[in-house]
Write a structure and sequence with these properties.
It is built from twelve helices and 19 strands. By secondary structure, the protein is an alpha/beta fold. Among the domains are: about 5-130, Rossmann fold; about 380-435, Nucleic acid-binding proteins (OB fold (Dihydrolipoamide Acetyltransferase, E2P), Beta Barrel). About 40% of the residues are buried. Bound molecules: S-adenosyl-L-homocysteine, iron/sulfur cluster and FE3-S4 cluster.
Length: about 425
């Protein structure tokens, strides 16, 4: 029987994609995957540091692993991801969680196999964290799904939004050569993948520093020429860099899903400036209008932060106004969380928790109202759905996504990866319900 590995992933799709590489490296070494950490010879926790509650969850989890490690002292416990790019967390682990064997950073993923070998040989703790790395191609990868796949196109971020830790944990923005991306996409399509998600913190600015110049719009055009793909998605889009050329590329290909994730973060010009977002409210509203005009039926989702330092009731009302004006398909909402080392963390005028949570509730209520009205268009419609599998809560229900990325639970006989038509019988705020036709 082969040894097993277990991976727990926190955070965004970049981390999920990194975990797929870690899984690929371990698979090549002959390990098999398990979802039960007690069976594992190698356990990896891939951390996220975007908000304080992400840090807290991780430390809770690491504490729980103490017992597992006591039962099975030979288990090799590894911790990686965005938290490890911050010295305070590395110090805290070494002090309070001495049973962690290997600590490595976001720039050391490709080297993980060697770190493991090194540890197996010496049985000495390893801490390996680099501040940056060039783009590395050809790292093994084990995909989470057969029918859909992530494809990273950029790494890191240069935007330095003042609240955000990502530029510190992921380093400077780097783009993969378009040819490398296209060959990966071709391989995926040949392997039966129907849907790909192009990933980057800010995909719209793709192309910096390439040997062969290529813009994001050009890349989209090239990707949509790959045979066999049914759906192309991308995230995240920074409003500032959403060029007309990108809109044209989207409009010109049926394969590119007519949905965008376009975080606006805050509705007040004063707060947007303090956040260093490089656009104002009028620009954002104009962009949404243009997208809706040029790409009829487009759905737009967003991210919103409440309680950024100095946010007044009036600023917050501006955020609510955008919610009312834009008819978002869905939204991720966050209470501002100060991140050590970022500019906003040391700004005057931090907002108290009570005010934040009051505004947060009000925002969620406004969104739910808007989304509930928006989803009426789905009622009794027929939607093309790619099946992701069976619903976690009910074995008899299938689950999948529409082209607009809406979650659909439905009854039917299809299998994972099938593309089917579903008649929508009920449209809830967070998911649709229907029957396969
Ligand atoms: N690169 C993407 C998003 C990365 S993080 C973009 O620029 O849109 C995902 C979301 O987390 C952000 O859009 C933001 O809304 C939220 N976020 C980031 N830092 C945060 C912080 N310190 N407190 C609260 N929310 C935060
Ligand atoms: Fe963070 Fe802004 Fe970069 Fe997004 S664009 S990762 S919010 S710094
Ligand atoms: Fe978290 Fe790092 Fe992603 S901080 S959101 S895992 S880039």
């Amino acid at each position: 029987m082969s040894d097993k590995y277990y991976i727990l992933t926190f955070g965004c799709q970049m981390n999920e994609n990194d975990s797929e590489h870690i899984a690929g490296i371990l698979t090549e070494k002959g390990y098999e995957r398990t979802d039960n950490v007690r069976e594992a010879t190698v356990a990896v926790i891939n951390t996220c540091s975007i908000r304080e509650n992400a840090d807290d969850k991780f430390f809770g989890n690491l504490g729980d692993l103490k017992g597992v490690k006591r039962e099975n002292p030979n288990m090799i416990l590894c911790v990686c991801g965005c938290m490890m790019q911050q010295q305070i967390f590395v110090d805290r682990i070494r002090e309070k969680f001495p049973y962690v064997d290997i600590i490595f950073g976001t720039h050391n993923i490709a080297d993980f196999g060697n770190l493991l070998d090194e540890f197996l040989e010496s049985r000495k703790k390893i801490v390996r964290i680099m501040d940056s790395s060039p783009v590395i191609e050809g790292v093994p990868l084990r995909r989470e799904y057969r029918h859909r796949a992530y494809v990273s196109i950029t790494y890191g971020c240069d935007n330095f939004c003042t609240y955000c830790i990502v530029p510190y944990t992921r380093g400077r923005e780097k783009s993969r050569e378009a040819d490398d991306i296209i060959s990966e996409v071709k391989c995926l399509a040949e392997d039966g993948v129907k849907e790909i998600m192009l990933l980057g913190q800010n995909v719209n600015s793709y192309g910096k520093g390439l040997k062969e110049p290529c813009s994001f719009a050009e890349l989209l055009r090239r990707v949509s020429e790959v045979e066999g793909l049914e759906r192309i998605r991308f995230m995240t889009s920074h409003p500032r860099d959403f060029s007309d050329d990108i809109i044209d590329a989207m409009a010109s290909s049926d394969k590119i899903c007519k949905s965008v994730h376009l975080p606006f973060q805050a509705g007040s010009d004063r707060i947007l400036k303090l956040m260093n977002r490089h656009y104002d409210r009028a620009y954002y509203l104009g962009l949404v209008k243009k997208l809706r005009e040029r790409i009829p039926g487009i759905t737009i989702s967003t991210d919103i932060i409440v309680g950024f330092p100095t946010e007044t009731e009036e600023d917050f009302e501006d955020t609510l106004d955008i919610v009312r004006e834009c008819r978002f398909e869905s939204a991720f909402t966050f209470i501002y969380s100060p991140r050590e080392g970022t500019k906003a963390a040391s700004m005057e005028g931090q907002i108290d928790h009570e005010t934040c949570s009051r505004r947060f509730k009000k925002l969620v209520a406004a969104l739910e109202e808007e989304i509930a009205e928006g989803v009426i268009v789905y009622q009794d419609s027929v939607q093309e759905v790619i099946v992701d599998g069976r619903s976690k809560s009910d074995e008899n229900t299938l689950t999948g996504r529409t082209r607009s990325n809406k979650l659909v639970n439905f009854t039917g006989t299809a299998s994972m990866g099938d593309t089917v038509n579903v008649k929508i019988t009920k449209a809830n705020t967070y998911y649709l319900y229907g029957e396969q036709i």
